[in-house]
Design goal:
This protein is an all-alpha fold. The protein has helices at residues 3-22, 33-49. The relative contact order is 0.08. This is Flagellar motor protein. It comes from Pseudomonas solani.
């Protein structure tokens, strides 16, 4: 993985967690099983259908 990809992932996580904290949310609000299943399943499905 490229160094800038790692930096981008870290910045995205910091932005999500920071925004949640600034809005007064709690960490449990970010852990949503059905939403994670949709995102991960869709991503894996797209990756498996992509031409190489």
């Amino acid at each position: 993985m490229d160094v800038l990809s790692v930096v981008g992932v870290i910045l995205a996580l910091v932005a999500i967690i920071g925004g949640n904290y600034l809005e007064g949310g709690h960490a449990g609000a970010l852990l949503n099983g059905p939403a994670a299943l949709i995102v991960v399943g869709g991503t894996l499905g797209l990756r498996s259908c992509r031409p190489r």
